[in-house]
Amino acid sequence: MADRTRIVLKSGKDQSLRRFHPWIFSGAIKKIYGPAREGEVVDLYDNKDEWLAFGHYQDGSIAVRVLSFDQGEVDAQFWEGKISNAWRLREKLGLVSSPDTNVFRWINAEGDGLPGLIVDYYAGTVVIQMHSIGMYRNLETIKESLMSTAGAKVHTIYHKSESTLPEKPGITERSGFLLGDQDRGEVLEHGYRFNVNWKEGQKTGFFIDQRDHRKLVEQWSDGRRVLNMFGYTGGFSVYALGGNASLVHTVDSSGKAIDLTREHMELNFPGDPRHEAFARDAFGFMKEIKDKYDLIILDPPAFAKHQNVLNNALQGYKRLNQVALEQIAPGGILFTFSCSQAVSRENFRKSVFAAAANARRRVRILHQLSQPPDHPVSIFHLEGEYLKGLVLEVE
Prior knowledge:
The chain is of the alpha/beta class.
């Protein structure tokens, strides 16, 4: 094993590691033996000098992100093993060879044992997004492992970390092509066609994590009047129209997103008059829709990215859902989501419960939703379950 910096934890602070939680906070560290450089691999020991794990060191509240609880080297074989293991899971899920879906998440950070690394697959294009300097320092090796694992199924690799990597000296190339130069392309999801721009789109280009929920919207849309709030590029709207909704309206504050929504509608349902799109503020729009819709989708951006704004976020979810519950037609169906990691499943439900009570509507939960299996969550790291959703019947 390479000569690595040793980090000794305070007494009792080893318990989370013994439960395989992949984070060590700075306050748990008793002493550091050797240089602790941002992004380098360090070994973790308990207060009695027993080895526990190794991981990437970083400045900040989360001081170490654990790569392995088994001793070993972080070499090409290490990366190849982790990345190929993640690929095999997607093969088992049927995503690699699916005839009607060619977009999926390949690596989901802690859920695949690679904290700080996100990799999404778009019909032959791989988009890498890094959230730690440790992952960035291994970019070339990760690229080689992705290529050797997927072979001919990869023709383009784009590194997109300008908004996710912390600001550090010497880190300049945060985005760029590592293979090929195709900046956009068409993908299939359950047979529906979408144009994805991984250079300019949000996240890695498309909200892959809502794939199964879009399919559920399709199943509930028959004959309904559908409102897709915070519609972005119209994914839910496409599925609603495919599910034979009587009308579908998409609302987003971004005019560019609305243009992309119309583009996707033309790709899948050219000339269909049942769809309209509006570049409007969400709350302003919803004040004017009393009983106009009997299926509403609320998929807002993350209201809380950190715990210090959690209370404000919970109030925001309550307010948003209360307006929707007050306005939806009797017998309506509400799909409501939170993508805030800081908001727990329990807290989100409490916010929606308070909204229903304030709206004085009788509400039943039909579905409780989470992220799809290509966004796996380690049972030892439930913070990875960032996407929560409820499907409600409103009497």
